[in-house]
Fold each of these.
Amino acid sequence: QSSSNVVLSWTPNPANSGYQVHRSTTPAFTPSAATLLTTLAATATDYTDAGAAPTPSTGYYYIVRAVAGGA
């Protein structure tokens, strides 16, 4: 099973203090500590998931979650 790079990008919001990137094999999942891949700075505009290894029967779903300012 080989890895693929998945690149996520977004427009930053200056009101946020950072971003959390979550990944799951379940659509419409609820972000949690178990799905958290990384936490990024407020200035981040993209993330590359170099460890993604989807199969024909299993894909990945992502949520980029803003962390409110002052959090």
Amino acid sequence: VQIYPNPVGGQLVLRTNLFVENVQVRDMNGRPISCYYNGRSCDTGHLAAGTYIISVETSDGIWNGKFIKMD
């Protein structure tokens, strides 16, 4: 799984050849944050500036990464 751009201002694009079953965004304290995934990207426009954790569940398992939201 690849995510870009990072840092992100609006849409965070997820690139994978695998079927994405679920996408979850959490703040650095582990609290879940809503993120609308449209099959290609997540809308991060509503997030405050900061660092977030993204978990992408695919048919191969769960991939975790970090991204930075900028204003």
